[in-house]
Protein backbone atom coordinates (compact mmCIF):
# COMPACT_ATOMS: atom_id res chain seq x y z
CA UNK A 1 0.00 0.00 0.00
CA UNK A 2 1.39 3.43 -0.93
CA UNK A 3 1.59 6.31 1.56
CA UNK A 4 -1.28 8.02 -0.30
CA UNK A 5 -3.54 4.96 -0.03
CA UNK A 6 -2.52 4.48 3.61
CA UNK A 7 -3.68 7.96 4.62
CA UNK A 8 -6.39 8.83 2.08
CA UNK A 9 -8.47 6.06 0.53
CA UNK A 10 -10.41 6.81 -2.69
CA UNK A 11 -13.72 6.72 -0.80
CA UNK A 12 -12.39 9.15 1.82
CA UNK A 13 -11.15 11.48 -0.92
CA UNK A 14 -14.60 11.52 -2.50
CA UNK A 15 -16.10 12.61 0.83
CA UNK A 16 -13.43 15.28 1.28
CA UNK A 17 -13.97 16.71 -2.17
CA UNK A 18 -17.65 17.18 -1.35
CA UNK A 19 -16.78 19.08 1.85
CA UNK A 20 -13.80 21.17 0.81
CA UNK A 21 -15.71 24.21 -0.46
CA UNK A 22 -17.12 24.75 3.01
CA UNK A 23 -13.69 25.27 4.56
CA UNK A 24 -13.30 28.96 5.43
CA UNK A 25 -10.51 29.78 7.91
CA UNK A 26 -10.94 33.00 9.84
CA UNK A 27 -7.38 34.13 10.49
CA UNK A 28 -5.58 36.77 8.49
CA UNK A 29 -2.26 35.95 6.89
CA UNK A 30 -1.89 39.22 5.00
CA UNK A 31 -0.95 37.98 1.51
CA UNK A 32 -3.06 37.97 -1.62
CA UNK A 33 -4.69 34.65 -2.38
CA UNK A 34 -7.38 32.85 -4.35
CA UNK A 35 -9.92 32.18 -1.61
CA UNK A 36 -12.11 34.55 0.36
CA UNK A 37 -11.50 34.29 4.10
CA UNK A 38 -12.53 36.26 7.16
CA UNK A 39 -10.12 38.74 8.59
CA UNK A 40 -10.04 41.09 11.54
CA UNK A 41 -9.53 44.77 10.89
CA UNK A 42 -8.40 46.61 7.81
CA UNK A 43 -10.49 48.52 5.30
CA UNK A 44 -12.10 45.50 3.67
CA UNK A 45 -15.87 44.98 3.46
CA UNK A 46 -17.59 44.44 6.81
CA UNK A 47 -18.84 40.87 7.20
CA UNK A 48 -20.23 40.26 10.70
CA UNK A 49 -19.76 40.59 14.44
CA UNK A 50 -18.51 37.90 16.76
CA UNK A 51 -18.16 37.89 20.58
CA UNK A 52 -15.01 39.49 21.94
CA UNK A 53 -12.44 36.89 23.10
CA UNK A 54 -9.35 37.45 25.29
CA UNK A 55 -6.44 38.38 23.06
CA UNK A 56 -8.52 40.28 20.48
CA UNK A 57 -7.33 43.75 19.53
CA UNK A 58 -9.50 46.21 21.54
CA UNK A 59 -9.37 48.59 18.55
CA UNK A 60 -11.62 46.16 16.66
CA UNK A 61 -14.41 46.31 19.24
CA UNK A 62 -17.63 47.83 17.87
CA UNK A 63 -18.30 50.35 20.63
CA UNK A 64 -21.65 51.42 19.18
CA UNK A 65 -22.88 47.83 19.30
CA UNK A 66 -21.51 47.56 22.83
CA UNK A 67 -23.45 50.67 23.86
CA UNK A 68 -26.66 49.14 22.48
CA UNK A 69 -26.33 45.63 23.88
CA UNK A 70 -23.85 45.82 26.74
CA UNK A 71 -21.94 42.90 25.20
CA UNK A 72 -18.50 43.49 23.59
CA UNK A 73 -18.31 42.28 19.99
CA UNK A 74 -15.55 42.45 17.39
CA UNK A 75 -15.96 43.52 13.81
CA UNK A 76 -14.94 41.00 11.16
CA UNK A 77 -14.26 41.81 7.54
CA UNK A 78 -13.99 39.89 4.29
CA UNK A 79 -10.99 40.19 2.04
CA UNK A 80 -9.16 38.22 -0.62
CA UNK A 81 -6.15 36.82 1.15
CA UNK A 82 -3.97 33.77 1.47
CA UNK A 83 -4.54 31.71 4.63
CA UNK A 84 -1.82 29.34 5.85
CA UNK A 85 -3.02 26.10 7.42
CA UNK A 86 -0.46 24.87 9.96
CA UNK A 87 -0.82 21.26 11.11
CA UNK A 88 1.01 20.79 14.41
CA UNK A 89 1.23 17.09 15.31
CA UNK A 90 2.29 15.69 18.65
CA UNK A 91 4.84 12.99 17.74
CA UNK A 92 5.63 11.87 21.29
CA UNK A 93 5.63 8.25 22.47
CA UNK A 94 2.21 8.54 24.15
CA UNK A 95 0.67 8.81 20.66
CA UNK A 96 1.81 5.23 20.03
CA UNK A 97 -0.83 3.92 22.42
CA UNK A 98 -4.13 2.36 21.37
CA UNK A 99 -5.37 0.06 18.64
CA UNK A 100 -5.18 1.56 16.12
CA UNK A 101 -2.48 3.86 17.45
CA UNK A 102 -3.41 7.45 18.15
CA UNK A 103 -0.62 8.63 15.83
CA UNK A 104 -2.20 6.75 12.91
CA UNK A 105 -5.48 8.55 13.49
CA UNK A 106 -3.63 11.87 13.79
CA UNK A 107 -1.79 11.31 10.51
CA UNK A 108 -4.95 10.38 8.60
CA UNK A 109 -6.85 13.35 9.99
CA UNK A 110 -3.97 15.72 9.22
CA UNK A 111 -3.88 14.34 5.66
CA UNK A 112 -7.61 14.98 5.27
CA UNK A 113 -7.47 18.55 6.56
CA UNK A 114 -4.34 19.21 4.51
CA UNK A 115 -6.14 17.98 1.42
CA UNK A 116 -9.03 20.39 2.04
CA UNK A 117 -6.61 23.30 2.11
CA UNK A 118 -4.48 22.25 -0.87
CA UNK A 119 -7.49 21.41 -3.03
CA UNK A 120 -8.86 24.87 -2.23
CA UNK A 121 -5.64 26.60 -3.43
CA UNK A 122 -4.58 27.39 0.13
CA UNK A 123 -1.18 26.74 1.68
CA UNK A 124 -0.62 23.89 4.15
CA UNK A 125 2.36 23.24 6.40
CA UNK A 126 3.29 20.22 8.54
CA UNK A 127 5.02 20.80 11.89
CA UNK A 128 6.01 17.99 14.27
CA UNK A 129 6.47 18.38 18.03
CA UNK A 130 8.64 15.72 19.65
CA UNK A 131 8.93 12.42 17.81
CA UNK A 132 12.68 12.31 18.33
CA UNK A 133 14.87 11.21 21.23
CA UNK A 134 16.51 14.12 23.02
CA UNK A 135 14.26 16.80 21.52
CA UNK A 136 10.89 17.75 23.02
CA UNK A 137 10.23 20.91 20.98
CA UNK A 138 9.63 21.28 17.26
CA UNK A 139 11.58 18.61 15.38
CA UNK A 140 10.18 19.13 11.89
CA UNK A 141 9.13 22.33 10.17
CA UNK A 142 8.20 21.63 6.58
CA UNK A 143 7.92 24.37 4.00
CA UNK A 144 4.35 25.53 3.28
CA UNK A 145 2.86 23.95 0.16
CA UNK A 146 0.11 24.99 -2.22
CA UNK A 147 -2.17 23.20 -4.65
CA UNK A 148 -3.20 19.62 -5.35
CA UNK A 149 0.19 18.83 -6.83
CA UNK A 150 1.73 19.30 -3.37
CA UNK A 151 -0.45 16.64 -1.73
CA UNK A 152 2.01 13.79 -2.32
CA UNK A 153 4.79 15.75 -0.60
CA UNK A 154 2.57 16.57 2.37
CA UNK A 155 1.56 12.91 2.74
CA UNK A 156 5.20 11.81 2.67
CA UNK A 157 5.93 14.16 5.55
CA UNK A 158 3.03 12.78 7.56
CA UNK A 159 3.75 9.12 6.91
CA UNK A 160 7.29 9.53 8.31
CA UNK A 161 5.98 10.68 11.71
CA UNK A 162 6.43 7.99 14.36
CA UNK A 163 5.73 8.31 18.12
CA UNK A 164 9.01 8.62 19.97
CA UNK A 165 10.37 10.35 23.06
CA UNK A 166 8.83 13.26 24.94
CA UNK A 167 7.09 16.46 23.91
CA UNK A 168 6.97 19.97 25.32
CA UNK A 169 3.80 21.18 23.63
CA UNK A 170 3.83 24.67 25.12
CA UNK A 171 7.41 25.22 23.95
CA UNK A 172 6.51 23.87 20.51
CA UNK A 173 3.56 26.27 20.23
CA UNK A 174 5.82 29.21 21.06
CA UNK A 175 8.31 27.99 18.44
CA UNK A 176 5.53 27.88 15.85
CA UNK A 177 4.78 31.54 16.55
CA UNK A 178 8.43 32.49 16.17
CA UNK A 179 8.69 30.60 12.88
CA UNK A 180 5.40 31.91 11.44
CA UNK A 181 5.75 35.02 9.33
CA UNK A 182 1.99 35.58 9.50
CA UNK A 183 -0.82 34.16 11.63
CA UNK A 184 -3.07 31.55 10.09
CA UNK A 185 -5.22 28.57 10.94
CA UNK A 186 -3.29 26.52 13.52
CA UNK A 187 -4.58 22.97 14.03
CA UNK A 188 -3.05 21.20 17.04
CA UNK A 189 -3.39 17.40 17.15
CA UNK A 190 -2.40 15.79 20.44
CA UNK A 191 -3.70 13.80 23.38
CA UNK A 192 -2.72 16.92 25.40
CA UNK A 193 -1.05 14.77 28.09
CA UNK A 194 1.44 17.51 28.79
CA UNK A 195 2.23 18.84 32.24
CA UNK A 196 3.41 22.18 30.86
CA UNK A 197 1.43 25.43 30.51
CA UNK A 198 -0.22 24.42 27.23
CA UNK A 199 -3.33 26.59 27.61
CA UNK A 200 -1.18 29.66 28.24
CA UNK A 201 0.82 28.94 25.08
CA UNK A 202 -2.41 28.49 23.13
CA UNK A 203 -3.60 31.82 24.52
CA UNK A 204 -0.42 33.49 23.24
CA UNK A 205 -1.01 31.97 19.81
CA UNK A 206 -4.57 33.31 19.81
CA UNK A 207 -3.39 36.76 20.89
CA UNK A 208 -0.90 36.72 18.02
CA UNK A 209 -3.80 36.35 15.59
CA UNK A 210 -3.87 32.61 14.96
CA UNK A 211 -7.23 30.94 14.45
CA UNK A 212 -7.11 27.76 16.57
CA UNK A 213 -8.48 24.27 16.29
CA UNK A 214 -7.64 21.79 19.05
CA UNK A 215 -8.05 18.12 18.14
CA UNK A 216 -7.65 15.78 21.10
CA UNK A 217 -7.00 12.19 20.06
CA UNK A 218 -7.63 9.49 22.66
CA UNK A 219 -7.85 5.72 22.52
CA UNK A 220 -10.92 3.75 23.55
CA UNK A 221 -8.83 2.10 26.29
CA UNK A 222 -8.04 5.53 27.78
CA UNK A 223 -11.68 6.60 27.81
CA UNK A 224 -13.03 3.28 29.11
CA UNK A 225 -10.32 1.53 31.15
CA UNK A 226 -11.21 -2.09 31.94
CA UNK A 227 -8.12 -3.17 33.91
CA UNK A 228 -8.44 -4.43 37.49
CA UNK A 229 -5.83 -5.57 39.99
CA UNK A 230 -2.15 -4.77 40.63
CA UNK A 231 -0.07 -3.43 37.73
CA UNK A 232 3.28 -1.86 36.97
CA UNK A 233 2.79 1.04 34.56
CA UNK A 234 5.68 2.37 32.48
CA UNK A 235 5.52 5.95 31.20
CA UNK A 236 5.92 5.69 27.41
CA UNK A 237 7.83 8.99 27.22
CA UNK A 238 10.03 8.96 30.33
CA UNK A 239 10.31 5.25 31.14
CA UNK A 240 9.27 5.95 34.74
CA UNK A 241 7.64 2.94 36.45
CA UNK A 242 4.69 3.24 38.81
CA UNK A 243 3.07 0.48 40.90
CA UNK A 244 -0.72 0.87 41.06
CA UNK A 245 -3.72 -1.08 42.24
CA UNK A 246 -6.66 -0.47 39.94
CA UNK A 247 -9.92 -0.70 41.85
CA UNK A 248 -13.19 1.20 41.48
CA UNK A 249 -11.88 4.25 43.38
CA UNK A 250 -8.71 4.45 41.28
CA UNK A 251 -10.72 4.24 38.07
CA UNK A 252 -13.11 6.95 39.25
CA UNK A 253 -10.16 9.22 40.11
CA UNK A 254 -8.60 8.61 36.68
CA UNK A 255 -11.85 9.28 34.83
CA UNK A 256 -12.39 12.46 36.84
CA UNK A 257 -8.94 13.75 35.96
CA UNK A 258 -9.35 12.95 32.25
CA UNK A 259 -12.78 14.55 32.24
CA UNK A 260 -11.25 17.65 33.83
CA UNK A 261 -8.65 17.88 31.06
CA UNK A 262 -11.31 17.54 28.38
CA UNK A 263 -13.40 20.25 30.01
CA UNK A 264 -10.42 22.63 30.26
CA UNK A 265 -9.84 22.33 26.51
CA UNK A 266 -13.53 22.75 25.77
CA UNK A 267 -13.82 25.88 27.93
CA UNK A 268 -10.68 27.37 26.35
CA UNK A 269 -12.13 26.82 22.87
CA UNK A 270 -15.40 28.53 23.75
CA UNK A 271 -13.68 31.51 25.37
CA UNK A 272 -11.29 32.04 22.48
CA UNK A 273 -13.64 31.41 19.53
CA UNK A 274 -11.67 28.24 18.72
CA UNK A 275 -12.66 24.78 17.55
CA UNK A 276 -12.29 21.74 19.84
CA UNK A 277 -12.81 18.17 18.66
CA UNK A 278 -12.37 14.97 20.63
CA UNK A 279 -11.52 11.96 18.47
CA UNK A 280 -11.36 8.29 19.44
CA UNK A 281 -8.65 6.43 17.54
CA UNK A 282 -10.21 4.11 15.01
CA UNK A 283 -13.53 5.93 14.69
CA UNK A 284 -14.69 6.94 11.17
CA UNK A 285 -13.03 10.24 10.26
CA UNK A 286 -15.59 11.62 7.82
CA UNK A 287 -17.85 12.92 10.65
CA UNK A 288 -14.79 14.38 12.39
CA UNK A 289 -13.83 16.34 9.27
CA UNK A 290 -17.40 17.61 8.96
CA UNK A 291 -17.24 18.88 12.55
CA UNK A 292 -13.90 20.51 11.76
CA UNK A 293 -15.36 22.30 8.73
CA UNK A 294 -18.30 23.45 10.86
CA UNK A 295 -15.84 24.69 13.55
CA UNK A 296 -17.67 22.84 16.31
CA UNK A 297 -16.84 22.47 19.99
CA UNK A 298 -17.44 18.85 21.08
Notes on the protein architecture:
The protein is an alpha/beta fold. The chain contains ten helices and twelve strands. It has helices spanning 3-7, 10-19, 63-69, 102-119, 151-159, 169-179, 198-207, 220-223, 248-271, 286-293, and strands spanning 31-39, 45-51, 73-82, 84-90, 123-129, 138-141, 145-146, 185-190, 211-218, 229-234, 241-246, 275-280. Strands 4, 5, 6, 7, 8, 9 and 12 form a seven-stranded mixed β-sheet that branches. Strand 8, helix 7 (198-207) and strand 9 form a beta-alpha-beta unit. Helix 2 (10-19) runs parallel beside helix 10, helix 4 (102-119) packs antiparallel against helix 5 and helix 6 (169-179) runs parallel beside helix 7 (198-207). The radius of gyration is 20 Å and the shape is globular.
Briefly, what is this?
This protein is of the alpha/beta class. The chain is built from ten helices and twelve strands.
